[in-house]
Design goal:
- The protein has helices spanning about 5-15, 25-35, 40, 55-60, 75-85, 90-105, 140-145, 150-165, 170-175, 185-190, 195-225, 250-285, 295-300; strands spanning about 45, 50.
- The chain has about 300 residues and is mainly α.
- It starts with a helix and ends with a helix.
- The chain has a two-stranded antiparallel ribbon.
- It is built from 13 helices and two strands; from the N terminus they run αααββαααααααααα.
- The protein has one domain (about 5-290).
- Helix 1 runs parallel beside helix 8, helix 2 (about 25-35) crosses helix 6 (about 90-105) and helix 8 (about 150-165) packs antiparallel against helix 11.
């Protein structure tokens, strides 16, 4: 799993998706697959007791039976449709869809991968760039992730985000982000939050992600007390010292058979859902978010 890319990629996505889209929806979509699955993968540790710990972290978080469906493309479609029906917001529908798809595809880079075309196939798709290590616990997983190409992956996302520095500017926030999402003026109206608080909240997710990368990378490389987990191994599918978990098909023929069936059924079902469900909801949805009602948002 990625430790910080899901917080960072939302800024990149909202800048490069050339439609009216909600930044908050992208962020929520990017985080949604892990909201209810990551904690049981590690468990809660209170003294010597461990609570809510899944017996098999990889199966629970990415597989079936388990909560691996949250990392499928279908899950993104379902939550986006529900939100479109409730809020009638096209910007939130697209944001959730883009964000959740980005998370599901990003997590294909580790050794376990994701069931992209679930429920039509439980075939996992993983490139094996770094080893999935959640089964070893939070700290051992952090040591493994930041001792491999996984840590490099997070650093790359920091660089990508910083290279588009314009998205963090105050003017960009008020000219582009706020007009695409009525949540911001609603928050300001209800909480009487000044402009600087909204800007700070918008930038906070990047700061959190960047600080998280720096803190965990520094811990793994400099302060890690776990014996045997302090070796930096940037090789593909590393580090070799962690108990690497995979979820590959038994044979290449089975892989392609599962992929062909899953992709075909997924595309057919999505076409039907798009025509009979999404199209009516989209047509009744508001084409653009309502304009800000607070003068402060316009004055900046």
């Amino acid at each position: 799993m990625s430790w910080a890319a899901h917080e960072l990629e939302s800024y990149f996505l909202q800048k490069h998706v050339k439609v009216t889209i909600s930044f908050l929806a992208i962020l929520l979509g990017c985080l949604s697959p892990d909201l209810f699955t990551k904690l049981p993968a590690y468990g809660i540790h209170i003294g010597s007791r461990t609570l809510l710990k899944a017996a098999d972290a990889a199966t629970w978080q990415r597989g079936w039976p388990g909560a691996g469906f949250t990392h499928s493309l279908t899950f993104g479609v379902v939550i986006a449709i529900i939100v479109l029906g409730v809020t009638r917001s096209r910007a939130w529908f697209l944001g959730l869809l883009v964000g959740q798809f980005a998370h599901a595809l990003t997590d294909t880079f580790d050794s376990v991968g994701t069931m992209l075309f679930f429920p039509f196939t439980t075939q996992h798709y993983g490139l094996g760039m770094w080893a999935y290590g959640a089964q070893a616990g939070r700290y051992a997983d952090a040591a493994a992730y930041y001792s491999s190409l996984g840590g490099v992956w997070d650093v790359v996302w920091i660089v990508i985000a910083i290279s588009g520095i314009a998205v963090f500017k105050r003017a960009y926030f008020f000219d582009t982000v706020v007009p695409n999402d009525p949540v911001w003026p609603w928050v300001q109206t209800r909480l009487h939050a000044p402009d600087r608080v909204l800007v700070a909240a918008y930038r906070a997710f990047f700061i959190y992600g960047a600080c998280r990368v720096a803190a965990w990378f520094g811990w793994a490389r400099l302060l890690n007390p776990l014996r045997g987990t302090d070796v930096f191994d940037p090789s593909w599918d590393g580090p070799r010292w962690v108990a690497r978990v995979t979820a590959h098909a038994a044979t290449t023929a089975i892989f392609w058979a599962n992929t062909g069936r899953g992709l075909a059924l997924w595309l057919i079902s999505m076409a039907a859902v798009g025509w009979f469900v999404v199209r009516p909801l989209w047509n009744r949805a508001a084409p653009t978010p309502p304009p800000p009602s607070e003068p402060a948002l316009a004055s900046r």
